[in-house]
Inverse folding.
């Protein structure tokens, strides 16, 4: 990875650690430091399941995309893991206390998160101080087009909660 980035040093401004869950990689702090040594800004996509590891790398980051899957009471049912909302909540708390730029985003499917619950989630995030939020359309298979986005009324209500909001 570092050789690849080094060869493109003059073409790139940043690198985003993503895919699966980058915080599960034990060498992530060293990889971040090595990429930073190349003069790159650093981003991270995370599901927020490892708050201690997140706290370790957060001071090294310029931007974070934090996946918020659903409302806290529905997390366990969606993930199949008891207590799965707590680490995500802890990571969001860390972000809110940091100076790192970030967005929260939810991959949305109406069967998983009906629009009233999506609005409740957004209002909860807004009340905690989240400024940037995005809805990502669920895709059933690689290469398929998004099949559903929230209604226009819901999108307008979501946009009113945040400094920036997008559906993608």
């Amino acid at each position: 990875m570092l050789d690849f980035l080094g060869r493109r040093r003059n073409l790139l401004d940043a690198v985003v650690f993503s895919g699966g869950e980058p915080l599960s990689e034990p060498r992530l702090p060293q990889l971040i430091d090595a990429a930073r040594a190349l003069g790159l800004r650093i981003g991270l996509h995370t599901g927020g399941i490892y708050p201690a590891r997140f706290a370790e790398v957060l001071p090294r980051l310029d931007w974070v995309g934090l996946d918020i899957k659903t409302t806290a009471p529905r997390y366990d049912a969606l993930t199949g893991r008891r207590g799965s909302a707590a680490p995500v909540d802890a990571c969001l708390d860390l972000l809110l206390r940091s100076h790192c730029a970030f967005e929260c985003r939810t991959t949305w499917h109406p069967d998983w998160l009906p629009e009233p619950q999506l609005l409740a989630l957004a209002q909860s995030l807004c009340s905690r101080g989240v400024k940037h939020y995005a809805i990502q359309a669920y895709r059933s298979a690689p290469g398929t087009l998004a099949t559903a986005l929230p209604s226009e009324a819901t999108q307008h209500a979501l946009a009113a909660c945040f400094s920036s909001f997008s559906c993608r």
